[in-house]
Amino acid sequence: MSKIWISGISHYVPEQVVTNSEMIERFNIRMKPAWVEKVIGIKERRWANANEAASDLAVSAAKQLDLEGFCGPIYLSTISGDFPTPSTSSIVKRKLGISGRSSATDVNAACAGQIFALELGYNKLMTSSVDSEVLVIASEVRSKFLNTQDRRTVFLFSDAACAIKLERSDNPPGEIEWIVTQTVGSDEYEILIPGGGSAAPLTNESFASGGHLITMVDGSKIFEKTTVELINEIENTLKNKGMSKSDYDHFIFHQGNGNLIRVICQRLGIPLEKAWINFETFGNSSSASAGVSLSHAYNKGVIKKGDRVLMMAMGAGYHLGLVSIRWGI
After folding, report:
1. pLDDT in tens, 236-246
2. Pick from 85, 119, 150, 277: CA 20 to 30 A from residue 301's CA?
């Protein structure tokens, strides 16, 4: 029986490193760098340059993979696309020079987006009689949507991209064992960009008041909601799959907040040495962060062939995703 496995993974972070001290000075924020590091858990983050868009970061990540002869579908997760239309995935396909008429699809599931995109790619390969490989990318340029005077959000967000190549094979060295995605529709918007959509088109007035920027209504509610939902879903899913946390060598989280990851690990009894945390230097790159963390851990030699990995993310909406991976590269 055919299986789907990760045959390649890569990530890209912009060259521009922005420290807490630089941000405080640049935006005239009345805070201490040490306080930001202690309370938020971040020292620095990567931001794109003025001429870099989400498609550029996506291409920089994808070009590190072996794409010679690739002509399969592309699934690209982003909530900071180049334009409302056309799709950023179609722009990435053109920039990569991928020929053929295979589909290119944008996915919007906030911070869980790349796991949702992985599920789409997985299902495509399991049902297609034509395609044997797909490209799954997450790319975010969140720095261009920051309210630089909002202390709740300005230090959190960063820019990055991750590219994952999935292949179908009869006897692969690794495997995507299962993927679970859920959406728990929220009647409140704890974090959103309020303007620019059909519900509230941008006007001169709304633009001037920051309607195009990230707005966090209740950070503490997001923290608690994410903690409770992720813990419950991890425990319930593993129970339903007949598995336990001890079956896993590594736990890869969406890097929403370093302290959040530590709290979840503590409540679940996961040793911190099994969790990869790079929030303090990479920040929260929304849908790209879980994949970037997976790629980062692999590149550092932490994740090795034969290891089992549980990757998870939760994003605004609320969208939640888990994926179990037997590592094969």
Report:
1. 999 999 999 99
2. 119
